[in-house]
Design goal:
Blueprint lengths: L4 H9 L7 E4 L10 H12 L4 H15 L5 H12 L4 H16 L5 H12 L3 E6 L3 H10 L4 E4 L1 E5 L2 E7 L6 H14 L7 E4 L5 H6 L2 E5 L3 H10 L3 E2 L9 H12 L1 H15 L2 H20 L1 E6 L11 E4 L6 H9 L3 E6 L6 H10 L2 E3 L4 H7 L1 H10 L2 E4 L17 H9 L3 E6 L16 E7 L13 H16 L7 H6 L13 E2 L14
Parallel strand pairs: 1-2, 1-6, 2-3, 6-7, 7-8, 9-15, 10-13, 10-14, 11-12, 11-13
Antiparallel strand pairs: 3-16, 4-5, 14-15
Helix pairs in contact: 1-6, 2-5, 3-4, 5-7, 11-13, 12-13, 13-14, 17-18
Length: about 525
């Protein structure tokens, strides 16, 4: 069951099949805010923009905002600033900006809508006035094959400073959508288009199922007059003061909760009971402050075979609250060594039995995990560890490291996978505040490790990871090397061409509905 059934119901009610199109605007629709702003800020932060370029860019954006120049003028000015820059460098830059900034701005509701359309077998496309360098990484993350967008002219691997017309703006979006529809047998009268901007009125009127997502005032008025569905998302973008206060309180609750366990240790003499009390109390207090609820299936597997090595896919800082609420007691864990730089946090981690490791050094990390093997064998505790190592920027599963599996083998205990579906909705990587919500969790049956050997370990890890992919409805992502070998269409004189995105990149200042 989806946590966003209310926003996907119309999609579920639609017919199946590729003849149904689902076109998504990007800026303000799939993501909160404007991708160009994130690129602009990152360029300034890196010192990659000269004073003259900065002044010219700000002046151009100001002229566009005041209506002194049109979108074509904006793109023309932006294109000139790109002259002589290699496309490859922009591709790399765009990937970095997506991971650092844009990924956390993707609306979880929009992500759910895209997935619902894909599950129905619809032909899904992003149709954006931005460039493929802004949109590409997000399209790949969302499994969207088709990207219709404005194109910059490239020759011999460098931007020439020119743009390719027609741009994918206004009527240009209609041209792009019609071309894709013709090539792929899409019936536009049965198709959906989602946007936040009145600038897209032509395509809204062209499709049979126009939708206003987070609409600007002009589009909101037209949508109300014509009876178009209107939805506004608050899960991303500027957080409220209440969100900040709740988030700060949830994070800081670890300190008083730790302190609350000390009298139990002093009076009972049992450090373990104190640890269990603090862990369970933290789970309840922090989740209440955050407004976090869990929808758990397979909960019995959390208790049937202990001790065990519990593994989870790591999407969010909320995972610490989620796993505490699930596991409650008799748990030792792993943290990154950087935590040790803060004396109070190191004291708390030591108290809870958390081992701090250097994730960059595989051999030392495995050696550092020996106390966890001892905790299982000598104390009967279970171990909690994220085999991906670091938090991911999307729900997609990353490669698994071997540490958790070595621990299970050495201790002779089962692996129990905890599949977290949407913790990223609560707090994506790079975002401080938590948002209220329900997280879906699946606990899979225990996987015995008694007959595992070092020779077969890689196969076992692959099998466990495959269970995660299946539970999350994912396929094995392609590597950068595989994507680089894929053919993709060269730029033509028609920006309406559907371009299969295999790379992302840095971009000039161009955004949907800017």
């Amino acid at each position: 069951m989806s946590t966003f059934d209310d926003v996907t119901q119309a999609i579920h009610d639609a017919p199946d099949g590729p003849q149904i199109g689902a076109f998504f605007d990007f800026d303000g629709t799939i993501m909160a805010g404007f991708s160009a702003t994130e690129f602009f800020k990152e360029q300034i932060k890196r010192g990659e923009m000269s004073v003259n370029d900065f002044v010219e860019t700000v002046s151009t954006i100001g002229s566009f905002s005041l209506g002194k120049i049109g979108f074509s003028g904006l793109m023309t000015a932006s294109g000139k600033l790109m002259k002589g820059v290699t496309e490859e460098s922009y591709i790399e830059f765009g990937e970095e900006v997506y991971e650092k900034q844009i990924a956390k701005l993707i609306y979880p509701e929009s992500r759910a809508m895209v997935k619902a359309h894909l599950d129905k077998g619809h032909t899904v496309a992003i149709v954006s006035s931005a460039t493929p360098y802004q949109v590409g990484p997000a399209a790949r993350d969302l499994d969207i094959e088709h990207v219709l967008c404005s194109q910059m002219e490239v020759k011999d691997g460098e931007f020439t400073g020119g743009i390719i017309r027609p741009l994918c703006f206004g009527e240009g979006k209609v041209i792009a959508a019609e071309k894709l529809a013709q090539e792929h047998g899409v019936d536009l009268q049965q198709s959906f288009f989602y946007t936040d901007s009145y600038d897209d009125i032509e395509l809204l009127e062209r499709v049979g199922k126009p939708n206003a997502l987070n609409p600007n005032s002009k589009l909101a008025k037209v949508a109300e007059e014509r009876g178009w569905p209107v939805r506004r998302f608050t899960s991303r973008g500027r957080a409220s003061t209440t969100d900040f206060v709740r988030s700060f309180a949830a994070d800081m609750s670890l300190i008083p909760v730790f302190a609350a366990g000390l009298p139990i240790w002093a009076l009972s003499g049992s450090k373990r009971e104190a640890q269990n009390f603090s862990m369970s109390l933290f789970a309840d207090v922090a989740s209440a402050l955050v407004g976090l609820k869990l929808d758990v299936t397979g909960e019995r597997y959390l208790w049937e075979q202990r001790p065990a090595v519990f593994i989870f896919n790591h999407q969010s800082k909320a995972d610490m609250i989620i796993t505490s609420k699930l596991l409650r007691r008799d748990i030792a864990g792993v943290g990154k060594k950087e935590i040790g730089k803060f004396p109070l946090m190191k004291t708390i981690m030591d108290f809870t039995g958390t081992v701090l490791i250097d994730r960059e050094n595989a051999s030392s990390a495995i050696e550092a995990m020996q106390p966890l093997v001892d905790a299982i064998k000598k104390q009967g505790k279970s171990v909690l560890i994220a085999p991906e190592g670091m938090r991911t920027v999307s729900p997609k599963i990353e490669p698994f490291k071997k540490g958790a599996f070595h621990i299970a083998m050495q201790a002779g205990v089962p692996i129990i996978p905890i599949v977290i579906h949407n913790a990223i909705d609560i707090a994506p990587k790079g975002q401080y505040t938590y948002r209220k919500g329900t997280v879906k969790v699946e606990v899979l049956p225990p996987i015995q490790t008694t007959d595992w050997t070092k020779a077969t370990l890689n196969l076992h890890i692959a099998d466990v990871r495959a269970q995660y992919l299946k539970a999350l409805g994912q396929t094995e992502p392609k590597t950068k090397e595989q994507r680089a070998k894929e053919p993709h269409e060269s730029d033509s004189d028609d920006a309406a061409t559907s371009r299969k995105i295999t790379n992302g990149s840095k971009t000039p200042a161009a955004s949907d509905g800017a």
